Every structure is written in structure tokens, then in C-alpha cells.
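Quick question: what would this complex look like in 3D?
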Amino acid sequence: MTKQEESSPNAAPGNKKILIVDDDAFFLQMLYDIVSKAGYIVAGVAENGEDGVNKAHQLGPDIVMLDIIMPIKNGLVAAKEIKAAHPAIKIVMCTSLKDAMFVKEADVCGVSAYIKKPFNEADVLAALNGLDF
Amino acid sequence: MSGMNESPYKALYLQEVSERLSGIEKGLLSLESSPGDKTVVDALFRHYHSIKGMSASMGFEAIKDFAHLQEDVLEGFRSAGSFPGKVTVSVLFECLDALKKFLLMVENSAPLELDTSPLVKRLKESVLAGGVARPGAEPPAGQEGGAAIAGSMQISRTIKVEGRVFDSLLKTTGNLLTVLSGLKDYASIVRSIKLKDLTHELEKSIQELNSDILSARMLPFGDLTQNLPRIIRDISARYGKEVNLVVEGADITLDRSILEGMGDPLVHIMKNALDHGIEPVAERKSAGKPERGTITVKASQKKDMVLVEVTDDGRGIDPERLRQKAIEKGIERERLDKMTAKELINLVCLPGLSLAESVTDISGRGVGMDIVATAVNSLGGKLDIKSEYGKGASISMELPKAASITRILFVKTGATMFALPISRVEKIIMLNDEAAGSEVDYLGSSIPAKRLSDAFAVKGSGKDRVAVVARDEKTGNPFAIIADEYGDEMEAFVRPLRPPFENLDFATGFTITGDGRPVFVLDIIRLAPASGKGVSS
């Protein structure tokens, strides 16, 4: 992964704050481990879309990683709301939904990158490194 | 991601999936009682979806595919705005069982070998046969369902520790206490103030550790009862009985070993209540009772005991039939006449006095209340039965809240078994056939010895094979107790003596062996020659 960091102009995770939103503690933990190991700052985690939107307001992250299928408020609705209030925040969708089902809708919601579940460390970092700040 | 099976995420995976499975169970149960709830279908979909995702990440392909299929089924209903019908829900219950089996395989790091193809086939067929068209009002569209998800983020607040770690901790403190007791004896012999002080300090710490471990072992009663709705559902569906389950006191905590041990008895009592207690709907109607029976499972705390009561509003126990049965089994009429109603009812705890009218595959043959009573006794508890014929029955288990486990050694003299606390045993000496007398050689000198059979006036076999050496608490002098043979060492629940035995000063309590026999746990010190014969009465 150090290779990737060097090769990408945007790979300066040091000061980038990430909010992770997933209703599975399992994925929260995995994403938390991967991004913090790579040098990102985990600003916070949330377990549903609504909590995610609130925390995005409070914490002002640079990146929000969002699951789609979540209780209370799904990831697409959350993405739309976050983007409307904070256009600079980059949204990364983490999902196992079949692409065609949601890509179009996700674009409308202002999603910058996708990570397909199941993911590995390289998948996650590639998506984050590709973000254009 | 392959190769992650023993990953640091496995514990989290197990915990999360099992929370999802509980959610699925709740969802399916509620689909059965109120089939038109969209939020439930949404929540179910999310559970399967989540299990699929996590399983894929762990490389558990078989689970992923199986969960995926169920996710698709739910997604189908979701997008069509229809609801799974009875048959589909029923098959989904079976699929849930298969998922549970898979999870167990993961937990045991066993290969994921389970043939799900018959279930898959039936699930697909049931879906093709059609769901239920949307009944009732349509919930607000365009929003994900908001069914409450109980699971919370537990990364930092709790640690998942395997139960056996706690068993092992308890055993270790048990050993520490044994060593401590030896050290205390030694300290009193060598008369060193310093050693006494240190021993005292050590004792305080060990006691603290012990109580911390005991409290860490506590689990809420609800952990056990969460399985009951499913059990009730399966049985009542099969027998056409309608039952409400009410659980109270789910937050009362008990030691995990006791909670675990009462699982089978509790299930058996529930099955009995469903099978023999709750009447068929027609019978209930004609008796003027509500069509749906009610079974209440209630836990409450009573000092250091927990009282678990299972009450049903079924037909209760027929005292006349029980009396007849008791007479058939050879209990004398005069004895029965002298019994109070309560004593008579509790006769159902005797082997062979089960009152089942027919042998069904619910509570089965031969496994009656006597087995339940033995199981409860062996946990250091007490079973009590109340019944009002025609109105219902109440079965209560009074169980210790915390574990009181003592390491004991069984010794046998003639046909009688006794138990000795290991902490008091200094040494076991094997004797020559002819050697037993009133003295035994120990560490180069003769020490006083006493036969267990003489001390208790029980019939000995005269074999005298072993001498158990202990020390007199006051004098520090060794003495020996002679028995025919010694048996197993084991961790046992020592129960306090109950009337009429509460004043026996040679025993500290009793324990129930695996085969249901009560055995006195001897206060070995009382058997020291100097402190006398206290056992002759």
C-alpha cells in the first residue's frame, strides 16, 4: 500500500478525516482498521444513515464512507443530504448491491467512488486514493 | 477475501451474525403473527443482506450463497409489495436453522459442510406458489423501513470471551483457594507472624478475584428465554394449540453454568406445559377459557437464589389420577392419606409417575419430571410444583444465583459414598490389605486413624484400601480416615443441608452425583480423633 500512496498524487491521507457509516460493526471495524492503518483519521463512526448525516454535520469529515442498506435512513438518502449541506465532502459508497441497480441513482446523489463488498485493503485504499480533492 | 477464516474479525463476525439471526427469528415470528408488516420485511431483507456481505468478506462462500438466496427472496417481496406466505415463512424458519448450523461450524472452525439444496429447492417452490398480496394499509413509500434494530456497536464496550475461559478462571481460583488453605494451615503450624500476615493479604486478594470472576460469569436470564418463542412456535404449530408466551425478569442475572444447566429442564417444563397442560382449543372453549393459552416464565430474585416459575393456565394435574398411579406404583394408601395436597402433587417428580395421557414426541416417553427434578437438584436447586386442577399448574425452580463450586473427592465405604473437600485432604495413602487398624504410618510415624464405616455406623466391606490424611485444625496434627476406595475428583455444586439434616455437624452440605444420588460432603476436620465422636447420633 505504500507503493500506492507514493504513486498517487492525492495519496496524502495524513490530514484527511473519514466518517464511516455502516450498520454492521463487522464492516465498521474492518474499514476502521484499514483506513487508520493507512494514516487516515477516523473522525467517527455511525450505525445508520440518520446518525451518519448528523455526525457529518458535527464532525465535518473530508470523506464519508457509506453503506447503502441500513436501517432508519439508507445510504443513498444520507449521501444526498450530506452532499446538499456540505458539497466538499467526498462520498464513498460501500455496497454489495449489484451495480446496475444503484449506480445511476448514486451518481445523482453525488457519490465519488464505490467500494464493492466484499472488499480487501487494496480495494479500499484504491478508492480513497482516487478521490480528487 | 480468502484466508481470513481465522482472522481477527472472526469473533466480530460470529457476534454480528448471531445478532442478525436473532433479528431474523424475531422478524419471522412477527411475520407469522402479523403478516402484512412492510417494516418487518425490510428488516429481514437487511439481516440477510448483511449476513451475505459479512460472509463474503470472511470467505464463507456457502453461507454467502445461502444468505444471498434468502435476501433475493425477501427483495422479491419487497419490490413486489407483497408478503411471504405461511409456507415461505415456515421454510425460512428451516433456513434459519441451517444458518445457525453454519455459524456453529464457523465457530468450531469446521468445514462448512451442509447440504442446503433441498431447502433451497423448497424455498424457491414456496415463493413460486405465491406470496400474500399486500394486506392492510401501505406504509409511507420511498423510505427504508424503520424496524427497530436492537444490535448496537460493541467494539469497545464489551469483549467477546468464550464461556470456557470463565470456567477455567473459576477452576483456577478454586485451585488458588485450595493452595491458600494449605498455606494457612502451614502458617499456623510454623507460628510465623510474617507468614500469617502475608497469607491474610493473599487471602483477601484471592477472595476479591473470586468474586470478580463470579460476577463476570453472570448472564441475564433473557439469554436463555430468547430461544423460547421459537420452541413454543414450533410445538404449538404442530399440535394446533395456541399459546401466548410471557417472559418476566429477563434481566435477572445468574451464573452461566446455572443458566446453561437449567436450559434443558426449562425446555422440558415448557414442553410439558404445552403438551399436557394447555388444552386443545375446543376443550378450552368449553371450559370457558380464552382460546389462546398463556404460559408465563418469570424469574425473580430471592436473596442469593433465583426463582424461575413456569405457570400455565391449562388443565393442571388431576390429583385423583396421580393418587391412583401412585398406588399402582406401590406407594401405600396410608402414606398417601397422610400427605398434604402439596406433597401429593410433588409426587410427579418420582420416576414413573408422569401423568401423560399419551406418549407424544414432544415431552416424550420416560423423560418425566423426575429427570427435571434431578437436573435442578444437581445445580444446587429445588423444584416445586403447584397445581389447581382445571385451572393450571406452576412449576418453580429455585436455583443458586452464583456458582458455588467445590472440588471434591469421592470415597466409598461398603455401599456408601461420601465426598471430601479436596482443600482439606493432605494426602491419600494406599494401604496393604491387612494394614488397617486404629493407626496408620505417615511420614515415618504413626497417626491416629478412623474407619469411615465405624464413624457413620454404616456397613463397611472390610477392604480398607485407602487412608485419607488431613490435619486437625487446632493442633495441626495429622490424622487419617480409612475407606474402601476412593473415586473421582470433581467440581461439584455443594448444596446446603436442608431439614431434617440441617444440624448434622459432620457434613458441610451435600452434592448430587451424575446419576442423581445425594452424597454428604464431610467436614473432614470434625472427624479428627481429638474433637471426638460427634457423629454417633
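Answer marked as accepted. Residues 115 and 124 of chain A are 6 Å apart (CA to CA).
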